[in-house]
Amino acid sequence: MKQEFxxxxxxxxxxxxxxxxxxxxxxxxxxxxxxxxxESAVKGVQLLTIVVRxxxxxxxxxxxxxxxxxxxxxxxxHSSEDIIYQEIALYKVSTKxxxxxxxxxxxxxxxxxRFIEISPEYMVIEKTGHKQEILQLLHYLEPxxxxxxxxSGRVAITKQVKxxxxxxxxxxxxxxxxxxxxxxxx
Amino acid sequence: MNTEKNIDTLMIQNNYVENITGAEALLNCIVAxxxxxxxxxxxxxxxxxxxxxxxxxxxxxxxxTRHEQGAAxxxxxxxxxxxxxGVCFATSGPGATNLITGIANAFLDSVPVVFITAQVxxxxxxxxxxxxTDILGVSMPVxxxxxxxxxxxxxxxxxxxxxxxxxxxxxxxxxIDITKDAQIEKLDFKYRKCNYIRSFNPNIxxxxxxxxxxxxxxxxxxxxxxxxxxxVLISGAENELKVFAEKTGIPVAVTxxxxxxxxxxxxxxxxxxxxxxxxxxxxxxxxxxxIIAIGMRFDDRVTGNLKKYAPDARIIHxxxxxxxxxxxxxxxxxxxxxxxxxxxxxxxxVKENSLGKWIxxxxxxxKTEYDKVIKPEIKPVEGDIRMGEVVRIVSDLTKGEAIIxxxxxxxxxxxxxxYRFRSxxxxxxxxxxxxxxxxxxxSIGAKIGRxxxxxxxxLGDGGFQMTIQELGTILQYKVPVKIIILNNCFLGMVxxxxxxxxxxxxxxxxxxxxxxxxxxxxxxxxxxxxxxRENLESSIKEMLDAEGPYLLEVIVxxxxxxxxxxxxxxxxxxxxxxx
Lengths: 186, 579
What we know:
The complex is a heterodimer of chains A (186) and B (579). Chain A is an alpha+beta fold. Chain A has helices spanning 17-27, 56-68, 95-99, 103-109, 131-141, 161-185, and strands at residues 2-12, 32-39, 45-55, 72-79, 83-94, 114-118, 122-129, 146-151, 155-158. Chain A is elongated. Chain B folds into three domains: 2-189, Thiamin diphosphate (ThDP)-binding fold, Pyr/PP domains (Rossmann fold); 208-361, Rossmann fold (3-Layer(aba) Sandwich), CATH 3.40.50; 384-556, Rossmann fold. In chain B, the strands form four sheets. In chain B, strands 3-2-4-5-7-6 form a six-stranded parallel sheet. Chain B has a six-stranded parallel sheet with strand order 11-10-9-12-13-14, sandwiched between helices. A six-stranded parallel sheet of chain B has the order 16-15-17-18-20-19, with helices on both faces. In chain B, β15, α18 and β16 form a beta-alpha-beta unit.
């Protein structure tokens, strides 16, 4: 049965790694629902968060293929229950339309939107939340002349953060050990 | 361990050189890795490296093939027979893209080859410059790792990383793309052998619990079967496999690339698995109660219909590449580690056993196969020469001790089925990719890698012509390979399928061939054509006795069929003996 998975990949900051990752998804005919990339808390380690819809067995196969890639440090896969995640969206709306009702109040109070730019022609609202909530505000605004809409990919934090930290620490210790060993050679 | 360390230290010390060019640095790296032979083809962007090769001719022999694909296959074969990584050079653009078939072939068959391609000067990258191609992008799906070097100072570390990645864990090809300016730029060279990359850890800790559970299953099985693959040869576990099989009494079947991992004349040898494998191991896979898969990946040509594969068996999978475990076949015990290491730990835990009744079932099936398929193929009394009889004569005359190189198709299946392999790493064939044209260049690489061995290439008339230009390489370097063309004037395996599954509609499979003996004469390679059975053995003897290279064209049955066969989509137990 297909379900949503959030895959967190920690990789070395090397050129082309994203390409290598998407090749694996392409070969397995898996669509990327969303993808974000940024430097992780560890310097030089990139974090990619990819959301895919597939079945349990396939996601496990794909994760093993990701881990096989030389520049991939560690991969975690989570179903939506195991993680805390957010997306961010920006909505550009006509100022005239928004001011014609008591929309501002509803946007702020009911939808937790935040006005980040106001000009005589348009306003920009920012909202963070899950995809569903973001889409609810989108539908709400549509009748009022929505000028632009953009939604980010997902960022996620696992409920067991410890796992990764321990792993990275082990990794660094191993590196140090190896470096010392190499130094001893010389 | 200590001596190893000393050698390493010495090597590092000797390899500190100031103010040399990137090209010299690259060649220094290759020397430091203990590589003496490089296969390749020059061109514009790689000229600085080729220029410096002249200064290294006492340390590195360069074999100029006639096409980059040939260089790639030769380097792969060199790696397969020596256990050392192959090295292959090509220039930018078409030189690099011509390697792709060879790279993909090495990738699917887990062979360590370091491919060095040149790139246009770094300022021109991305501008569609002359002979520029995005070889990193093109080779990405078929390399274990690749990278581009734009600065000379990156050469030593990238190269040592490349050799480490290619040869560690599950081996595979890597590609290093070096810009022309990086080849010319100067650097102070220092080489450090790479033995650790934090994002790649091939030294997996051994999980004793899984090995113990595996031993329990093995000790309780009554109908167990070992499937031995290429991984046994790669990890050098042939002896451990023999000890393990002899102690437990378990029969050993091999995959195509696992051939030669277990002696064909051993009492526990169960034969070749797969589509054109032997009858007994295919039939009995589905009657086994335990399958011990060692260093193999359950390829579709081995398993047939997955839904009907080994229904009664528990499966133990010993495999170094974690991504292969549970990929095609769901396994009960996964042991993600090196085959040799696992077997060493497993052997003391298993009980001595003999499985007489179970082994007898194999022998009954063997007898059936011999009567219906093998005997008519290797001892035909009338009609045209058959591929199988050619292979068996060669097998007997060389006592199963030659290195056999094959092309792809019926010639390959005949060689795999009828040569009695006795020592490890004596088969060089294109397994996963099934690359026609592999055989001839591969035979060159194999002979150069193991000059003391007799190297015999079985080629079809189709595959031979795909890389026929490599006769030029044989001529130039006097490579004493023995080439047997099994000529049926057909693309035999495709014709067989047309015969069996496409109502004998022979679409573009019949070939009008040149006179191969005359072609060989043009390349100054002694050659002979044989079409009569009574001259076959003497002709083969003549070929084997010849000093240098020799080409023997054998006119074989036009419409031969390779049997047994597990038809596409069928279960392994439905392997057919007749057509």
